[in-house]
Structure formats: structure tokens, C-alpha cells
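pinned: reference chain
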Amino acid sequence: MSAGPIVASGVGILLLVVTAYVLIGGTLATTEVLVEAQSSLAAQQEARMRTAIAIQETTLNNQSLSVKVDNTGSEPVVDISSIDVYLHYETGPVYIPYEKGDVNYWNNVRINPDGVHPGQWDPDETLTLIVTFEEDATPICVQVVTPNGVSASTYITR
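pinned: its C-alpha cells
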């Protein structure tokens, strides 16, 4: 009797064990990534539920628009430059980037009162934005969107 069938059986069993190990390892890694993604999504949704903003006042002055926005939620907005601003014209909405260019940009003038975390827009604070737009443009509406997707909009009074 030769040792060939015994060696072949041993190699076959070894390959089955290695294959099972690779499949189980891949499944565990995929499960770990999935659980981490679900946890991150839940944390983002919780932060979004605690975020609320309200536009209190708009003032139109030639090529600029002053917008006062209150943080009425319980979540601070840490990165002010990540806020999105849109001006709506008769032709449709236009995205206004943060501090870029001579026209069609916005910047934050002040946060009032800014006592708890300076430079962050905390709950019960008012953020004043200045939006600069093109000379012949007449915006109808302004929309402000926080980094986590909560928005407020209002018509512009003249």
C-alpha cells in the first residue's frame, strides 16, 4: 500500500480548512465594516435630529444680502465654512460658495453671542452671513444648509 492516497487526502483536508478560514475571515471583516457603517449612520442621524436653524432676518443692500440665522437646535455647527448657501432667482437656484471670488460668495460676519466655543455656532447663537452676488441679479429666496443637511429658507424682503 502506498502513501500517495493518504498524502492526497491530507492535502485535500488542509485545503478545505484553509478555504473555510479565508471565507470565515472575510465574512467577519465584512460584518465588522457593516456594523461600523451602521453605527456611524446612526450617530449622524442623531446629530441631524438635534440640529435646527431658523432665518430671522434678511437685508438686501445693492449687491449684498445680510442673513441672520439662529441655531435653534441643541447641536453646535463646528465647521462654519461647510455651510451651504443658495440664492434662488427666477431662473432657478444658484450655489454660493464660501469666501471665493469677487461675486457670488458668502462669509460670516459674526456669531452673536460667541461666548461658549469661539468660532463655533452653538445653540441659541445667531450667525450673520453676508452674501455677495452679481450686480444685475435679483434674488427671490435664500436657503442656508448646515453640514449635516438641515436647512432653512425664506423669501427676501425688499
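why pinned: The longest strand covers residues 53-61. The first helix runs from residue 4 to 49.
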